[in-house]
Automatic annotation (TrEMBL):
One of its GO terms (biological process) is isopentenyl diphosphate biosynthetic process, mevalonate pathway. Residues 7-162 form the Diphosphomevalonate decarboxylase-like N-terminal domain. It comes from Candidatus Limosilactobacillus merdipullorum. Residues 177-308 form the Mvd1 C-terminal domain. It is an enzyme of class 4 (lyase). Pfam families: MDD_C (PF18376), MVD-like_N (PF22700). This is diphosphomevalonate decarboxylase. InterPro entries: GHMP_kinase_C_sf, Mev_decarb, Mev_diP_decarb, MVD-like_N, Mvd1_C, Ribosomal_Su5_D2-typ_SF, Ribsml_uS5_D2-typ_fold_subgr.
């Protein structure tokens, strides 16, 4: 027997950038994201009573060292919850277009939470799966659900979970990833966000920004207003990135091509095309727009970035789990 789960990645429109409790993975603020259909992880988990340790592979490569200990720490939580101390074999495949650099711990830990908990005999609700995925990676909390998803920061393990705002996003909202190559080593989001919490003088203001943006973003979603959603997401992303520049030591995820993309989208916007950008803990840029404007945006970006580096994604579904 084995259990296989598929989870899609998500991109935050109101960002999570900082923890209040690093052990329980409680965030400082709420956040809100769009799950994408184009990028996902399939994870197969098998109980392995003969093994004295867990075994992992990602895309056919064995996982060892720090990455493996992080996975074991997570599976220990599953063992504790289920009362089943057996070890696991975990095989993950990331479905991300070749070398796009968009692989994400969000889909990875959401899929692992779903597959491992079921394989260990638990039958968790989606809310409880979201709480469990949170222990692996903050953004994974939201990848249990499809469409537009809100993560309530909560005050403890019980109250920090995600829930969908609308799982069927049928008003034209679309996202295009601009793949920007990087060979530079980035600051991990885990380390980066902690540095921002501890050293950025802007951090207290960020908490207020997010509280305000959550209300505004939910109103824009209720109004099915793609233009307003994009505008708010861009503003929120820029303010998140101000927390990296204002940390001590300051750092940035932007590269030259990131800035080039931002300027190009700004100029398209000034020409009357409704398009906006958001960036995460890396140089890639995601464009937010209404699907009717896709061709026009592609035509403007392709000569600079190359058509193969533009990946269009629709809103995606929530987690699926099946036992083989
Ligand atoms: C987000 N990001 O809301 C934010 C915006 C990146 C920028 O969540 O330490 O991999 O595992 O909780 O979830 C990336 O951070 O960090 C992230 P951990 P995670 O999507």
């Amino acid at each position: 027997m084995a259990t296989i789960a598929r989870a899609h990645t998500n991109i935050a429109l109101v960002k999570y950038w900082g923890k209040k409790d690093q052990q329980l993975m409680l965030p400082q603020t709420d956040s809100l994201s769009l799950t994408l259909d184009r990028f996902y992880t399939d994870t197969t988990v098998t109980l392995a009573p003969s093994q004295s340790v867990d075994h992992y592979s990602i895309n056919g490569q064995d996982v060892t060292g720090r990455a493996a200990s992080r996975l074991t720490t997570f599976l220990d939580i599953v063992r504790q919850l289920s009362g089943n101390n057996t070890h696991f074999t975990v095989e993950s495949t990331n479905h991300v277009p070749t070398s796009a650099g968009l692989a994400s711990s969000a889909s990875a830990f959401a899929a692992l939470a779903a597959a491992a908990s079921r394989e260990a005999g638990l039958n968790l609700s989606r809310k409880d799966l979201s709480r469990l995925a949170r222990r692996g990676s903050g953004s994974a909390t939201r990848s249990i659900f499809g469409g537009l998803v809100e993560w309530h920061r909560g005050v403890d393990d019980e109250t920090s979970f995600a829930e969908p705002i609308t799982e069927k996003v049928e008003f034209g909202l679309e996202m295009m990833a601009i793949v920007i190559d990087t060979s530079k080593k980035k600051v991990s989001s885990r380390h980066g966000m902690q540095l921002s919490v501890e050293t950025s003088p802007f951090y207290p203001a960020w908490r207020d920004v997010v509280a305000d943006d959550m209300v505004k973003m939910k109103r824009a979603i209720a109004d099915r207003n793609v233009d307003r959603i994009g505008e708010l997401a861009q503003e929120n992303a820029l303010r998140m990135h101000a927390l990296t520049l204002s940390a001590n030591p300051g750092y940035t995820y932007f590269e030259e091509k990131t800035i080039t993309a931002m300027r190009l989208i700004d100029s398209l916007h000034q020409q009357g095309v409704s398009c906006y950008y958001t960036m995460d803990a890396g140089p890639n840029v995601k464009v937010i727009y209404h699907r009717r404007d896709r061709e026009q945006i592609m035509a403007a970006l392709a000569p600079i970035f190359g058509a193969t580096n533009l990946i269009v994604s629709q809103p995606g579904p929530g987690i699926t789990v099946r036992q083989l």
